[in-house]
């Protein structure tokens, strides 16, 4: 399992994905076509976006959703736009890669939900309005840990690895402050990441982690566990390794 956790493997996947694309293109997912700009994480090159949709309950045509959503690391905006199409009234799609924010805007326009989806170029929460609050905050994270001193060679690599889990630490610490009362912070993580470090960081910043769903996915010769984790103040029910529940986030319940 150590080889699938190796950050160099993920950086190679990023490099190969960039090499395959030298111009804008279109891919199909969820029965819809989506714009893809060069330098943006390609959902067609990795199973993680479809897995995130499955974990959230947003896969399929009969999904309904409600409330306001902030998606961190939106990439092409596929999850943000799908949330709006499913019924969410207000969606903010944020990405540290400025081209990804542009890409998400293109897809909101393509699917006629630009009136509900706002895109921002932002390092996590930095570019949000101070008073903004959301019912659901979701991040399909770059769960593979790179060394803390790793120097990113291309913005695309940030979709694959997190140097020293700096972004994960900030997300765990800051995300709950942007919730409406009763809202949920949801993290898509994986056994390709360092769960022990994630748990340690959560404790250090005063957060509890609670497993909502686990989806095993075969990746080559390895079975990788993809997880939907709720981030909450420490007084909430803590995360228990191996615990599984059938709870589905509010935005993904079927009507």
Summarize this, please?
With 255 residues, the protein is α/β, with parallel strands linked by helices. 26% of the residues lie in helices and 30% in strands.
Key words describing this protein structure:
255 residues, globular, single chain, disordered C terminus, Rossmann fold, EC 2.1.1.297, peptide chain release factor N(5)-glutamine methyltransferase activity, alpha/beta, two-stranded antiparallel sheet, 7-stranded mixed β-sheet
3D architecture notes:
With 255 residues, the chain is an alpha/beta fold. The chain has one domain: Rossmann fold (3-Layer(aba) Sandwich). 26% of the residues lie in helices and 30% in strands. It has seven helices and eleven strands. It has a seven-stranded mixed β-sheet, with helices on both faces. Strands 1-2 form a two-stranded antiparallel ribbon. The protein is globular and about 40 Å long. The relative contact order is 0.16. The C terminus is likely disordered.
Q: What topology emerges from the helices and strands here?
A:
Elements: H1 2-5, H2 7-19, E1 25-29, E2 32-36, H3 48-56, E3 68-72, H4 78-86, E4 90-95, H5 98-110, E5 117-121, E6 134-140, E7 144-146, E8 161-163, H6 166-174, E9 179-190, H7 195-204, E10 207-219, E11 222-233
Parallel strand pairs: 3-4, 3-6, 4-5, 6-9, 7-8
Antiparallel strand pairs: 1-2, 9-11, 10-11
């Amino acid at each position: 399992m150590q080889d699938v956790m190796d950050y160099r493997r993920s950086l190679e996947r990023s490099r190969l994905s960039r090499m395959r694309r030298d111009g804008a293109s279109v891919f199909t997912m969820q029965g819809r076509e989506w714009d893809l700009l060069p330098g943006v994480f390609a959902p067609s090159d990795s199973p993680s976006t479809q897995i995130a949709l499955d974990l959230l309950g947003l896969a399929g045509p009969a999904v309904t959703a409600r409330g306001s959503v902030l998606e961190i690391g939106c990439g092409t905006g596929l999850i943000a736009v799908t949330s709006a199409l499913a019924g969410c009234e207000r969606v903010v799609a944020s990405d540290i890669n400025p081209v990804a924010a542009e890409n998400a805007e293109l897809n909101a326009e393509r699917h006629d939900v630009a009136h509900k989806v706002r895109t921002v170029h932002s390092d996590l929460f930095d570019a949000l309005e101070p008073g903004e609050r959301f019912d659901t905050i979701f991040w399909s994270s770059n769960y593979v840990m790179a060394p803390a001193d790793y120097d990113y060679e291309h913005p695309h690599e940030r979709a694959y690895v997190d140097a020293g889990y700096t972004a994960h630490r900030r997300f765990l610490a800051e995300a709950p402050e942007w919730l409406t009362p009763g809202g949920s912070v949801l993290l898509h993580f994986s056994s390709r990441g360092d769960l022990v470090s994630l748990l340690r960081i959560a404790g250090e910043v005063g957060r509890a982690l609670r497993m909502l769903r686990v989806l095993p996915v075969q990746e080559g010769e390895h079975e990788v566990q993809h997880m939907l984790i709720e981030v909450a103040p420490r007084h909430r029910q803590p995360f228990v390794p191996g615990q599984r529940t059938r709870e589905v986030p509010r935005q993904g319940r079927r009507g």
